[in-house]
Specification:
Layout lengths: L1 H11 L1 H7 L4 H42 L1 H10 L7 E5 L19 E5 L5 H21 L2 H7 L2 H14 L6 E16 L2 E14 L2 E14 L7 E7 L2
Antiparallel strand pairs: 1-2, 3-4, 4-5, 5-6
Length: 234
């Protein structure tokens, strides 16, 4: 290792400089170790920056594709709604859930479903994505998770996956239903809330499912629906 460091130093002309300054060979070796460590740090930082940048672009593209079935019916009926039915809901503390513990939703607000909206199709896609995301969570497939989630939620989930480590998890959906509670608008985003209820088998143990998914979509229609948070319902 020492010979390799000294060789690198010589290649960079640093060894000659150290010798001219009267510094010992051992000091030069130690200094080179520090310099190489700093260089490695910035190289890794640069690589992560490139990866995250490409991930954000991929999420924008795949989010639109993954949630095309979500977006179309809402965009078609939202502007022509005349007598929507409404429901109220409020924040509740997050609890242990079938997929993750994370919820980032607005405070109590009014949700509405436009008249003539194809609720059945929306709920069908939501249920399909519930199963896909659960499978991705079980296997730790961060690429697939990123296709369904916002960047903030993706970061939170990767932290939880690191905490889980190599512990294997196998889930089986016994009977889970999806119910669209409605839509609202927040700033420059459309927000949809879907409630899931039923039962699952996780690592051999039965678990009741009762949670609400918060989905967001750019109000200008530039992207598809992405999962922003999960609220556990007591």
């Amino acid at each position: 290792m020492r010979n390799m460091l000294m060789g690198a130093a010589a290649a960079l002309g640093i060894a000659g400089l150290m010798s001219a300054l009267g510094l010992s060979e051992s000091f030069t070796s130690a200094l080179m170790t520090v310099l190489l460590a700093v260089a490695a740090y910035y190289l890794i930082r640069f690589a992560l920056g490139v990866f995250l940048g490409s991930r954000m672009q991929r999420t924008a593209r795949s989010g639109s594709a993954q949630s095309a079935d979500y977006a179309s019916p809402y965009q078609q009926t939202h502007q022509q709604a005349e007598s929507p039915r409404t429901a109220s809901w409020a924040d509740q503390p997050a609890a242990a859930g079938s997929v993750m513990d994370q919820f980032s939703a607005p405070a109590a607000t009014e949700l509405s479903i436009p008249a003539g909206f194809d609720t059945v199709a929306f709920e069908r896609v939501a249920k399909e994505n519930f199963g896909k995301l659960q499978q991705a969570w079980d296997t730790g497939n961060v690429v697939q998770i990123s296709d369904f989630t916002t960047n903030d939620l993706f970061i939170a989930l990767t932290h939880q996956l690191r905490e889980r480590g190599a512990v294997a998890q196998k889930s089986e959906i016994i009977d889970v239903s999806a119910k669209l509670l409605g839509f609202t608008e927040q700033g420059d985003e459309n927000v949809a809330v879907v409630e899931f209820s039923g039962a699952m088998k996780i690592s051999g143990e039965f678990e009741q499912v009762h949670e609400r998914w918060v989905l967001v979509q750019p109000a200008n229609g530039s992207g598809g629906w992405l999962l922003a948070g999960i609220e556990q319902v007591a």
